[in-house]
Write a structure and sequence with these properties.
Layout: H1 5-19, E1 34-35, H2 48-62, H3 86-98, E2 103-107, H4 110-120, E3 127-131, H5 136-144, E4 148-152, H6 175-184, H7 188-193, E5 198-203, H8 215-225, E6 231-236, H9 251-254, E7 263-267, E8 277-281, H10 283-292, H11 294-297, H12 304-318, H13 323-347, E9 365-369, H14 373-382, E10 385-386, E11 388-390, E12 401-405, H15 412-433
Parallel strand pairs: 1-10, 3-4, 3-5, 5-6, 6-7
Antiparallel strand pairs: 2-8, 7-8, 9-12, 11-12
Length: 434
């Protein structure tokens, strides 16, 4: 079949993206390469005890001669039709209890959870204020919403405070200044009286910089600026689930703020090692999402194997068996940051060529900032380490980096080998410029 005019147009657009070095491609990870790229921070997807428990649960439920509703290979439909089950509802209650929430609603992915939540809950006349680095799924949800949306500077709660990450001066105001402007603006009367709802969207851990939200400051600021209680904080805990807080309950639980957060989105495709997500909220909010969240209503419910994997990993966390993995993970984080800081002290590269954040990372995500991200990533890949270059527009212009993700399953010698590869590249690159 000859290419159509549309095919030619699409090919031209892709060629333009290729010329800018921004073309995305699907790749298959090498079976022999060492993983420093995936979000499987606790390595649960390959943990022998987790796999054994999962297989046992599947076998006991799927091999029954008369399987209960919901204990089949596929769910058979959306949860509002034929895809619901007692197992799914019990799992929601189990997860909500674990995170100290009143209720929870499962979604097929974190993307669907955020798009469904932000598209339907904020009403016309409401305002969503969001961290400028909030995830793309939140942006897509906000675009479907009837509410006004306004960004604030990344992790900047007050004007006197600087951003926790080193991505330059922001063009956006602090959260405090933004809320003040809303109170003094044209709709200030409705904001002060509590008639206008203000939704504040942040992440627990930001996926590119690996820094944590200053959540306690955010909560205090919102409660002070909106004393009528019309400030509703939503925290995307995708990258903090499993690694922060007691037994991996997340950032809100780590700080004891779960009762002051209106909604939390916990996803299972990262440290939890499976897939899916849950919105933790009040019972009325759960019922509202069931009725109005289109990404919940109009999609086939998760299959029993997916639900079983979530059940298995949560049991593993709740039993305390993941605690040694979390401890091992943070030991590797400290070790790698120390090694990289030592490379910078000894080799003294220009900050444009290579730098890391001076503070010890708050998460397993370590960005290696460099204006030659593709070159550094390729050098490490050729030596058997899977890392990825992250460049604009995924990150702000001038903030290109190689994104390194550590895992509890990484060995100390693997971390040291990656750091040696990075140092080799720094030395070779500096020499080539002389």
């Amino acid at each position: 079949m000859p290419p159509t005019n549309l095919d030619k147009t699409l090919s031209s657009i892709l060629a333009s993206r290729l010329s800018q070095g921004r073309l995305r491609r699907l790749t298959i990870p090498s079976a022999t390469s060492i993983d420093f790229s995936s979000n499987s921070y606790l390595s649960l997807s390959s943990h022998p005890a987790v796999k054994a428990a999962y297989i046992s649960l599947l076998t006991s439920h799927l091999q029954s001669d008369s399987p209960q509703p919901g204990h089949t290979l596929g769910s058979g439909g959306s949860r509002l039709l034929d895809g619901n089950s007692a197992f799914a509802e019990d799992l929601e209650r189990q997860i909500a209890d674990f995170h100290g929430a009143e209720a929870g609603l499962l979604f097929n992915s974190g993307f669907e959870a955020n798009t469904g939540l932000f598209a339907c809950v904020p009403q016309k006349g409401d305002v969503i204020v969001y961290d400028e680095l909030i995830h793309a799924s939140v942006h897509d949800g906000m675009r479907l919403s009837r509410a006004q949306r306004i960004p604030f500077a990344h992790n900047k709660v007050y004007d006197a405070a600087s951003s926790a990450s080193e991505h330059g001066e922001s063009k956006y105001p602090s959260l405090d200044a933004l809320l003040q402007s809303l109170t003094n603006g044209p709709q200030g009367g409705d904001v002060k009286s509590g008639k206008t709802n203000i939704f504040i969207a942040v992440e627990g851990i930001y996926s590119m910089d690996g820094d944590a939200a200053p959540l306690r400051q955010i909560v205090d600021c919102v409660e002070k600026k909106l004393p009528q209680g019309n400030g509703y904080i939503i925290v995307d805990e995708a990258h903090s689930t499993g690694i922060l807080g007691p037994q991996g309950r997340g950032l809100a639980c780590q700080l004891g703020l779960q009762d002051r957060i209106w909604a939390r989105v916990h996803t299972f495709g990262k440290a939890m090692g499976c897939s899916g997500a849950i919105v933790l909220c009040s019972s009325p909010a759960r019922n509202y999402l069931i009725n109005y969240a289109r990404s919940f209503i109009y999609t086939t419910a998760m299959s029993f194997p997916s639900l079983a994997s979530i059940h298995t990993t949560y049991n593993f966390l709740a039993s305390g068996r993941a605690d040694p993995l979390i401890k091992q993970l943070y030991s590797l984080i400290h070790h790698m940051h120390s090694l990289l800081a030592d490379v910078i002290r000894r080799r003294n590269p220009s900050p444009e060529l290579f730098r890391v954040n001076p503070e010890v990372p708050q998460s397993p995500i370590l960005p290696l900032f460099t204006n030659r991200a593709r070159s550094l990533a390729q050098h490490c890949q050729e030596r058997g380490f899977t890392v990825r270059p992250i460049v604009a527009p995924t990150v702000p212009m001038g903030q290109d980096r190689v994104r390194v993700c550590l895992h509890a399953g990484n060995r100390v010698e693997e971390v040291e080998g990656l750091c040696r590869a990075v140092e080799e590249w720094v030395v070779d690159t500096v020499k080539s410029k002389l």
